[in-house]
Specification:
Length: 522
């Protein structure tokens, strides 16, 4: 009785069917077992991608903030800020001009030394991003602080350019967070009221946020000293970026099951007739497997069932060959897309590097004259002073100021005044030697650094500069002259500022002694 119950298991066709069914079940179980590993790998790759995007946004935002703050600082070098009363209408007019030149600035104000608001224009945006620069008089004493408040519209536009093209599909969200862990800016319409604490010793993390939703997120710090503690936080919901992977798996499940069942049936049929036609069929299948696409099917079999199986295998082989061609074309297309995306990323990195270099150059040059600005001058003076301390090689500093420049502005307007400054700068650049360094040191004040030049040589070159500037005057303002103070480095000089101070004192003597002259430091 027992032998009759299990006799059906000795059927060869059933045995093969059970073997193939078991293999499919094993493959399904293996797929289920490795799914967590695949998900973890996908999350790691996505986390690194989010971190890279956050770092790019952070660096771009940091450079943009530095540039805007530097532009504001350069404006405070205007004489109106150093000499005019901070509550005067003239200074308010300067604020109006700055606001007109910078549409993103919605509110400008000056805070006096006592902490009270001296003057302001515009309407405070909400939300806003704020930065401030100090205002000094000609003697270097603090007069107050210039504060600007910008809307976040330019930040939104910048982030939209930097996010990957598929960010909308994955609902990528970006937040700018301050040191109090408050979101100052968000690309999300539903801005969270509570954010997770900053990451410590982690590049990215997946966890439930305070609102109960699970997110994968990364963050990058903003290095701007004025925005200490600020960070860029970018997040995506894991189910969203894993959806495409799971959708593909779901779409392949049913076809895989169908193909497996077909294989079981085919194996069952083949096993029903173990004969020479089977060997011929195997031989034909082996030729196709070896890559031979055009095979003549001549299978002699008396079994109608085997003939049907032969025809089914032939159709399947034809379909597989066609699919192989399609897959080859798809693979070539994907490789081309990867190459194009790689080239686009390389180009974006190159443009970002060029922009960083340009911003660094702009931060050290005067926009009107093209000469170095005060920051660049300070760096070169420091380097030359350090070289003097090491090698005792002489160097000198010429500090010059356009005579009666205020009268030019008052009489002919600031446009002519700008032409005069540009003309002085051009003449200074042409007269200076290759090793010399020229900078616009203030409103109408210029500095010329003369390496390897003693006091006598400095006086000779200063006189040449003075003569060349007055001879080159060709604006409606008539002949423009300059007063020049010269000073050379001495062993008792404590810093490079000491030398500049002595040149400044000589400049004041030149003005006091009638202008349009050169005075050396005592």
């Amino acid at each position: 009785m027992k032998s009759h119950s299990f006799r059906f298991l000795s059927n060869f066709r059933l045995q093969l069917s059970l073997v193939f069914g078991g293999l499919f079940l094993l493959a399904t179980l293996l797929d289920i077992a490795i799914e967590p590993f695949l998900n973890e790998t996908l999350i790691e790759n996505k986390g690194e991608a989010l971190l890279s995007t956050a770092q790019i946004i952070s660096k771009s935002l940091d450079m943009e903030l530095l540039q805007r703050e530097q532009k504001l600082r350069l404006r405070t070098h205007n004489k109106a800020f150093s000499t005019t009363s901070i509550r005067s209408q003239a200074l308010t007019n300067e604020l109006v001009q700055i606001k007109q030149e910078n549409p993103d600035i919605k509110w400008l104000g000056i805070i006096a030394e006592d902490g009270k608001l001296a003057t302001a224009i515009g309407t405070k945006p909400s939300p806003y991003i704020e930065y401030a620069v100090s205002i000094y008089d000609d003697a270097g004493a603090l007069r107050g602080t210039l504060v600007a408040q910008n809307s976040w519209s330019w930040v939104s536009a910048m982030i939209a350019e930097l996010l990957p093209r598929n960010s909308a599909e994955y609902a990528t969200q970006v937040f700018i967070v301050n040191q109090q862990n408050i979101a100052l800016f968000s690309t999300s319409a539903d801005e969270p009221t509570t954010l997770p604490a900053p990451l410590v010793n982690q590049r990215y993390r997946q966890e439930d946020w305070p609102d109960g939703t699970n997110y994968l997120y990364a963050e990058a710090k903003i290095e701007n000293p004025a925005k200490k503690g600020w960070r860029v936080l970018i997040r995506e919901s894991p189910p969203q970026f894993l959806a495409s992977f799971h959708r593909l798996r779901s779409e392949l499940t049913l076809p895989s099951l169908i193909i497996t069942l077909l294989l079981v049936v085919l194996v069952y049929r083949i096993a029903a007739s173990i004969s020479s036609p089977l060997e011929a069929l195997v031989s034909t299948a082996q030729r196709i497997s070896a890559g031979e696409e055009h095979v003549e099917w001549k299978i002699d079999a008396s079994s109608h069932e085997f003939n049907k199986l032969s025809l089914a295998i032939r159709q399947m082989a034809t379909t597989l060959l066609a699919r192989r061609g399609e897959l080859a074309a798809i693979n070539a297309s994907l490789e081309k897309k990867v190459e194009e995306r790689t080239e686009a990323l390389s180009e974006a990195n190159r443009q970002l590097a060029e922009r960083a270099t340009l911003l660094e150059q702009m931060a050290r040059s005067d926009a009107l004259t093209g000469l170095g600005n005060r920051m660049a001058a300070a760096e070169r003076l420091t380097a030359e002073y350090q070289r003097f301390r090491r090698s005792h090689a002489p160097y000198s500093v010429l500090l010059m100021d356009a005579d009666h420049f205020k009268r030019v502005n008052d009489t002919y307007g600031h446009a002519v005044g700008d032409q005069v400054l540009q003309q002085i700068a051009a003449t200074l650049h042409s007269v200076a030697r290759t090793t010399d360094f020229a900078a616009r040191y203030g409103g109408e004040e210029f500095l010329l650094l003369l390496p390897d030049t003693d006091a006598e040589g400095a006086m000779v070159l200063a006189e040449r500069v003075r003569t060349a500037i007055s001879a080159a005057s060709d604006t409606v303002a008539g002949v423009i002259t300059v007063s020049i103070g010269a000073a050379s480095a001495q062993e008792e000089d404590d810093t490079h500022e000491t030398i500049v101070q002595r040149a400044d004192e000589a400049l004041y003597r030149a003005k006091a002694n009638g202008r349009n002259r050169v005075e050396g430091a005592g």
